[in-house]
Specification:
The chain is an alpha+beta fold and about 110 residues long. It has two helices and four strands; from the N terminus they run E-E-E-E-H-H. About 30% of the residues lie in helices and about 20% in strands. Strand 1 and strand 2 form a beta hairpin.
């Protein structure tokens, strides 16, 4: 995994295996296709059928849902309930503890 705020890196992901690889095209966090390679040869490109459906960057959808909940006076989203958010955060906290990773504000 490579990321940078200052470099123009490709927005793709590659999963490597013993017999080949899978290249996820475009933005790996909102992929619209991936290509299978075996023994160095391109085998198949699979398209998700979502081309053009994602009009906004992914976090914008979260902001839109928050806005909807606020307008409707909801304290919790039906799309992402609080219990599910807590489970995800507990998992991330457990991983950070295993890795010994702390944010500067936690030091």
């Amino acid at each position: 995994l490579s990321t940078s705020l200052r470099l123009d890196l490709p927005h793709e992901a590659v999963i490597l295996g013993t017999k080949g690889k899978i290249k996820i095209d475009k933005s790996w966090f909102t992929p619209t296709s991936f290509t299978l390679f075996q023994d160095g040869e391109e085998i198949e490109t699979v398209r998700s059928g979502m081309e053009g459906e994602l009009e906004l960057p992914p976090y914008n959808y979260e902001a839109l849902e928050v806005n909807t909940c606020l307008r409707e006076g909801k304290l919790e989203s039906s799309i992402m309930p609080l219990d599910e958010s807590l489970v995800i955060m507990k998992t991330l906290d457990a991983l950070r503890e295993q890795w010994g990773f702390k944010y500067p504000s936690e030091l």
